[in-house]
Specification:
It is built from 14 helices and 13 strands. With about 400 residues, the protein is of the alpha/beta class. It folds into two domains: about 130 residues, Aspartate Aminotransferase, domain 1 (Alpha-Beta Complex), CATH 3.90.1150; about 240 residues, Aspartate Aminotransferase, domain 2. Helix 12 packs across helix 13.
Length: about 400
């Protein structure tokens, strides 16, 4: 008989079934988003992380990623970790300590890129966009001319406050003209709206699994331009991050050898997510996202609510709705979740609630259910909303021929 263990088995553990809701909630928030059945099935498989089967899968992940990122010769790497890990990896490999970085900030995630740059030991300059608004190319050019940074960071779609940097192509051209590397966070937006990495001249594109790609959280991808990859190869200093060192990750992603045990299930899942994007094709996928999001926006406004961001700066991939002044956002979310099994997001800052329009969220049946749940829950809390008018507007836009 072994001696009694000091720490005993916990007594209050219940099976997952008794914690999870009977019926899964419809995930219509700012991520994670619902995943297709094929992605879920792939995520349940474990295979050897090295060897021929894995090599073949990795080659396919890379070639499908090149399509989704729109890069011919860019280097694609995956990372076991959240979108933030991909952000950290992009910054750690491109930013040399003590060099200057311009962080264009118009929301929570762009500030995270600023924080990551500071931690790398860069001399950071922050361009705080007043707003909620898109960054202006002129202002970016002024900052670049004044500070001459080596690297510029920007978020294409700010999930946090639903602002879109629509001028990204112009900003990329400006960065290029001044010889800066440009890092773009496209966690929210990749495959939901155009991002042409090569054509625009973006040096690092960051994405995560659980948003635009409609995959699982915890597996992420990065694309580096040829110039960025050259810069990484030429660096002689050793990175402070071992897991996120692109030269080490290259061993697994391009040399078929070992870095760390790859997140095989996550890679299989993202393979399926990418394959579904390729099957759908980017133009049709962009069209679906736009049509669904615009229909939802019209539905919301026709119900009598207002959107947080003006049309010219508005993101389609996540829709931010101003919470009426006499309504408690937390109660609204709880009510939608309990009565309608629909989950949407609150926010870290402004008094808004957010409905995601990423990947599987952009389906007509999900939109009707979500908009109705929103209107009905608001009505229950005594807000003045016109539910039939909202539903009619949603229907009218969705049924227009595309
Ligand atoms: C969600 C998100 C991130 C962070 O992704 P995590 O997987 O939560 O780390 C970064 N940028 C944007 C734009 C996001 O929407």
């Amino acid at each position: 008989m072994a001696k009694n263990l000091d720490i005993s088995i916990p007594q209050n553990i219940v099976p997952l079934d008794s914690i999870l809701p009977d019926e899964p909630l419809l995930m219509m928030g700012a991520g994670p988003v619902p995943i297709p059945a094929r992605v879920a099935a792939a995520n349940g498989i474990v295979i050897n992380h090295l060897g021929d089967t894995m090599s073949q899968i990795i080659e396919q992940v890379k070639s499908m990623s090149r399509y989704v990122f729109q890069t011919r010769n860019g280097t694609i790497l995956g990372v076991a970790g959240p979108g933030s890990a991909a952000m950290e990896m992009a910054v750690a490999n491109i930013v040399v300590p003590q060099s200057k970085v311009l962080n264009i900030c118009n929301g929570f995630f762009s500030h995270r890129l600023h924080e990551l740059s500071k931690r790398i030991g860069a001399e950071t300059i922050k361009l705080e966009v007043s707003g909620p608004e898109s960054a202006s190319p002129q202002q970016v050019e002024d900052y670049i001319a004044t500070h001459q940074p080596a690297v510029v960071t920007i978020v294409q779609g700010e999930t946090s406050n639903t602002v879109c940097n629509h001028s990204l192509p112009e900003i990329a051209a400006i960065a290029k003209r001044h010889g800066c590397f440009l890092i773009v966070d496209a966690v929210c937006t990749l495959s939901t709206m155009p991002l042409n990495m090569d054509e625009w001249g973006v040096d690092a594109v960051i994405t995560g699994g659980q948003k635009g790609l409609s995959c699982i959280p915890g597996i992420s991808l990065i694309g580096f331009s040829e110039q960025a990859w050259q810069h990484i190869q030429n660096r002689r200093d050793s990175l402070r991050h071992w897991c996120y060192d692109a030269k080490l990750a290259d061993q697994f992603w391009n040399q078929g050898s070992y870095h760390y045990t790859a997140p095989v299930s996550g890679i299989l899942a993202i393979h399926e997510a990418l394959r579904l994007v390729c099957n759908e094709t980017l133009p049709l996928r962009f069209e679906r996202h736009k049509r669904c999001s615009v229909a939802l926006q019209q539905g919301i406004e026709s119900m009598g609510l207002t959107l947080h961001v003006a049309a010219q700066s508005r993101l389609n991939s996540v829709v931010g709705i101003n919470v009426p002044s006499d309504i408690d956002a937390k109660r609204l979310l709880a009510d939608m979740s309990q009565r309608y099994r629909v989950e949407i997001s609150g926010s870290f800052g402004p008094n808004i609630v957010r409905i995601g329009q990423m990947g599987e969220q952009c389906r007509a049946h999900h939109l009707f259910r979500t908009l109705h749940a929103l209107g009905s829950s608001l009505q229950c809390l005594k807000a003045d909303v016109d539910i039939p008018a909202g539903m009619a507007a949603l229907e009218a836009v969705l049924s227009q021929q595309g």
